[in-house]
Amino acid sequence: MTDTDTKETFSFQTEVGQLLDIVAGSLYSNREIFLRELISNASDACDKLRYEALTDPTLTENSEQFAVVLNVDKKAKTLSVSDNGIGMNHSDLLETLGTIARSGTGAFLDALKDKSQGDLGLIGQFGVGFYSAFMVADKVEVLTRKAGEEQSWLWTSDGKGQFTIEPSDRDGCGTTVVLHLKKDAKEFLEDLRVKHIVRTYSDHIGFPVQLAEETLNSASAIWTRPAKDVTEEQYTEFYHHSSHAYDTPWLVMHNQVEGAVNHKSLLFVPSMAPFDLYDNERKSHVKLYVNRVFISDDTKDLIPAYLRFLRGVVDSEDLSLNVSREMLQSDPKLAKIRKALTKKVLSELKKKANKAPEEYATFWENFGAVLKEGLVEDADLQSKLLELCRFSSTDSDSLTSLAGYVERSKEGQDSIYYMTGDDTKKMEQSPHLEGFKAKGVEVLLLSDNVDEFWLQHVTEFEGKSFKSVTRGATDLDKIEGDKSKDDEDDSSETELTDLIAAIKAELGDAVKDVRPSKRLTDSPVCLVADEGDMDVNMERLLKRHGQLTDGTARILELNPTHSILQKLALRANEEQSATDSLLQDAAHLLLDQAKIADGEAPSNPAEFVRRLSAVFDKAL
Ligand code: ADP
Ligand code: MG
Q: How many helices (H) and strands (E) does the chain have?
């Protein structure tokens, strides 16, 4: 039990202390945003209580309509923000107003570490929530009582390292934040100034925000208003409030659907990748409301994981309010809304891709890798998703669509060729691409981890199958290449049968096979995966994640037009070839060379060096 008769003193978490130093010391021109932050918290608190009251109506039995009330006391030089929301008890206060609970604020501090301490524009960019009160106040009091509890508490701090908590009295549940304004912040005692700030930043708040009994905002949930009545700024403010994001949304989608299941949605695609995009949980952050009552922001049943970059709200009056969150998640109506939303979002993205390809490319850089997860997880929409995909390729500096690739493909080409790896710049140099380049056949260069996975699920696009240039035999012969490039190709091919036998004998199990290559023009050798085997890059990925220890043996391909191989072929034809130590060393060196070209290490670096020196020595 807490001793309710004493005032306790606590120290802020170190990070909060740092944050407060920065915030309090700032003469930050945009400091009026403190009001937006406090109103936003008050509105969240009302949302929370409204939800709790669904299961326990006694919580709101005695309270008035939800509202956020502002109060100016010119004499005392205070401005207060009051709500009749959920309130906080002793442990809530300790947990939330003394530590950094919010990852957005943590991100703000990280960003500050990289920059000079004076770069306070960042505060506006991230928002620092409750602590922004100390931009304008030298003392902050929080009088609060949690819904359903008897005891009220007063939290007090001057923002200088410590805060106190003591028992107090408050009528009804909710929270009042009292700001004792700094000398240079008296402007926030002026009604006009306060009204202007509220209208600018908080119009979208769904509860009335009142000053002297006048309601300053529209006080209707923004997503229920007709799209034509909402300005771009209001959308952006709402996005900031509902998503704890501080960028300008890249795309706003506001829809009201009447049909099998009525629903309204206001969805945003951020212009920057959120920090948790690649967390293992792959959480969705879109908020679900039922008839304007906030239900949940853990909405994986509403938004597929591959659209988890979306922010915003979905509201349906057709879902039942009288069921638990868990029950609601299995409501078939929710699945219908999910389907409708997904289709809508994909079609909006397609429109954007057609209308503004450059802007779409930015979107793709941010979220393409996530969207591609849908190719694996949503078989029904696979073809729609493929239309949205963009790729790097050997033929162009900008990204290409699959339709663009197919349009440029050569006569007789029935595959979409691709190569996977870590880095497109390195891939471009790969020996595997030589034959394709010589014929002018375009190859897609795929460097997202997810690429290996969807390629196992997608078999074709517009009748053309996907084919890795590092696996299986090439069928380049069938393709009509660029004339000019074909003509240059007058190098003669050498018969390699004896050499191949000699290399096979020497390398044994280290290779699966040795064969002449059709894909090489300049390099002597390369390694490829056999048709049914795992692609080279996939194997590398699995090894890196510890899911595979031994690799599969690869096929070593030899370039019959390369002078090294032509000379080796001559030696292999000679009688004493079986005891030719140079030929033996060469076999290993060729294999290692192919590995190095793929960015891998020779299988035995010491042996590699010895052989290289031996061959060198003979040549000099
Ligand atoms: P955020 O709103 O992003 O969580 P803040 O710094 O603005 O971060 O607020 C921190 C926490 O303090 C909130 O998450 C909430 O738990 C609590 N809080 C702040 N203001 C209120 C309020 N008016 N009523 C209830 N809880 C509040
Ligand atoms: Mg907040």
A: 22, 23
The residue type of 403 is A
Mutate to test the pocket of ligand 1, among 41, 141, 153 (most ligand atoms within 8 A of CB): 41
Ligand 1 contact, 130 CB (< 6 A): yes
The second-level CATH assignment, the architecture, of 224-362 is 2-Layer Sandwich (3.30)
218 lines ligand 1 (CB under 6 A): no
Protein residue whose Cα sits closest to atom 18 of ligand 1? 41
Is any ligand 1 atom within 6 A of the Cβ of residue 42? yes
Q: How far apart are CA 307 and CA 314, in angstroms?
A: 14
Q: What is the pLDDT of residue 348?
A: 98
pLDDT band for position 224 (50/70/90)?
A: very high
What type of residue is 397?
D
CATH numeric code, 497-619: 1.20.120.790
* Percentage above 70 pLDDT, the chain: 92
Secondary structure class of 506 (helix, strand, coil): helix
Q: What is the pLDDT of residues 288-340, one digit of tens each?
A: 998 888 888 888 889 999 999 999 999 998 987 766 667 777 788 999 999 99
The finding on whether 175 has its CB within 6 A of some atom of ligand 1 is yes
Residue 244 CB–ligand 1 contact under 6 Å: yes
pTM (2 decimals)?
Answer: 0.80
Residues near ion ligand 2 (CB < 5 Å) are 40-41, 129
Name the residue at shortest CA distance from atom 10 of ligand 1. Answer: 96
Domain boundaries, the chain: 8-218, 224-362, 394-486, 497-619
Q: How far is the CA of 96 from the centre of ligand 1 (A)?
A: 7
- Single-letter code of the amino acid located at 440: G
Q: Distance between CA atoms of 438 and 356, rounded to whole angstroms? A: 33
CB count, 10 Å around CB of 596?
12
- For 57, the token pair is 């109506």
At residue 162, the 3 state secondary structure works out as strand
Q: Tell me how far the alpha carbon of residue 133 lies from the centroid of ligand 1, in angstroms.
A: 12
Measuring from atom 2 of ligand 1, which residue has the nearest CA?
Answer: 41
In this structure, which CATH number among 3.30.465.10, 3.40.50.11260, 3.20.20.80, 3.40.309.10 belongs to the domain 394-486? 3.40.50.11260
**For atom 11 of ligand 1, which residue has the closest CA?**
96
CATH 3.90.1170.50 fits 8-218, yes or no: no
Neighbours of 348 (CB within 10 A): 16
